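[Primary structure, fold]
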Amino acid sequence: MSKRGGTGWVWYLAILVTVFFWGMSFLWSDQVLDQDVPVFTFIFTRMILAAAGLSLISLLAGKLQRIRKGDLKWFAAMTAFEPFLYFLGETFGLKMTDSPTLCSVIIATIPVFMLIVGQVFFKEKLSLFNRVGIFLAVAGVICFILIGGNLHIKYVYGIAILFLAVIGSTGYTAICKKLTNKGYNAFSIVTWQFILAIGFFLIPFLVFDARTWTPAYLSWPVLRPIVLLAILCSGVAFVIYAACVDRIGMTRTTVFLPLVAIVSAVAALVMGQDTLHPLQMAGIVVAMAGVAMAQFNKQTETVHET
């Protein structure tokens, strides 16, 4: 368990709440994009709402810490990875593929890519079990894509862009862990993250979307899913995620991310926002099993990482 104490099962339950909200996020984002809301208008509005809500809560709770001298670069780098790079990859990828389930499946492979990065750049060892898991994870995703039968060029580009989100989340998690080790609490990390994100997305919004902005983008059908995304997915879920990275460790937190795809797939089917071939469901199961196998030994090796 973490050196900071706390009841372990509470943190595992908490990360499941984050998994649920992030699983729903693909569907709520799809609802916004289906109303032809421009991408940067959508993301910029979400950043403003998330930053405002988090600032208010953090200040009222007395949890907002100032960024210490020398740490601004780490907060800026973290924000550049996520939400900036992550949301660009996720939102444009979702818009181009129009499949919340596909997006969630690819995003769920993030832990696998974290392992690959660890081996390539930090010479971390992977067992045969881990390697088989990586193979299954990739095979499952490929199976899902091929059976979908939508391999037109825009769809392929959308898949490629989705991997920007994978890169963004990988970098974000590593820097988030560094900041928790420096003594910053989850409220401070996430609040400053979204405050800085407003600056990151302001210029793209002004350049690409400001001239076409209309009051229709403030209508309740548009704002409802954005508010849900800002409060539950950007606010509550990110605070919980940062706290879990601190309390139970980076590896044991990310091991739950594959469940995001399951939540998204089931919700998309129930809400009629996606249709799946039975073999695509099998592909999801294979991919998620592979992700779990890829991390199995790593999880036991990092019990004392915090």
Q: What stands out?
A: The longest helix spans residues 153-181. Residues 8-301 form one domain. DSSP finds twelve helices and no strands in the chain. The CA atoms of residues 33 and 95 lie 7 Å apart.
